[in-house]
Write a structure and sequence with these properties.
The protein is an all-alpha fold. Helices cover about 75% and strands about 0% of the residues. The protein has 2 domains: about 160 residues, Tetracycline Repressor, domain 2 (Orthogonal Bundle), CATH 1.10.357; about 80 residues, no CATH class.
Length: about 290
Amino acid sequence: MNKKKRSIVEHSLALFLEKGIRHTSVQDIIDRAGISKGTFYNYFSSKNECISAILEMIREEVNMCRIEMLSGKDAKDQDLLIEQITVLMKLNEKRGMRAIYEELIYSGDLELRRLVLKYRLSEYEWLAERLTEVFGESLRPHAFESAVIFYSILQQLLYIRKLIDGYSRDVKVVASSVFHYIKRIIHSLLHENTAVLRQDHLEVLKDQLHIAPARKNDVLDMLKSLLEESGLSKAQKQLTQALLAELEQPAVREAVVAALLKSFLEAYEDTEAHKTVRVISTQVWYYLKQHA
């Protein structure tokens, strides 16, 4: 997401929080962002597409934070996973996304509801993969159900607690308790034949929502385009080339790519290309997880 598009997205989010999505028009966004109608439609075909970009922006921020947290750490560390889980909750709270999600869900607009489900599904998919890393490959057939159960319990506990005393306990504390519960549920899924969902149900839902997998060629093209940018430092070029070379190998080494990603991100910190680099890194991470 380039600087101009991100600016429009940020202004749109501010307006949606102030006036609500329903009562915010495209013209309102144009006026707030100080752009022409042509500029808006150069980036978005509709207000709904702008909403989709907001959700994508949040997902990118969460994913990159999680990647940075995992770099150089033990993927099986349960405390680390709990920290990664809370990133989304904390960012949603900071950005005011709870109100946005509620309005989207109850809007009556099928397209908007599908957008919410699409991004919620990506979160289930992420947690399913991480739970498999922590608890082992035997969980994979039940990882999707485990992720759904985890977030269902977590969200309901936070919601009820807020109704009771007007605030939610520290998300990490609640997530830690839910993690304790999920370990017992996982035991039941593995040994007591209690499963309701299967891993292939996730693929069915993704197909219904037209969620395309991260494709290697797309990632390679983004890296090649980045190398064509002027003004790259020697370190930026070398790290980009190294990442590109590793991803072009027939058998990509996940550990090598994961190690490169951290330095790759740091090399572009505080540059105009940083947002683009974050997007590339997110896509690389998704590609690795799909081919793990």
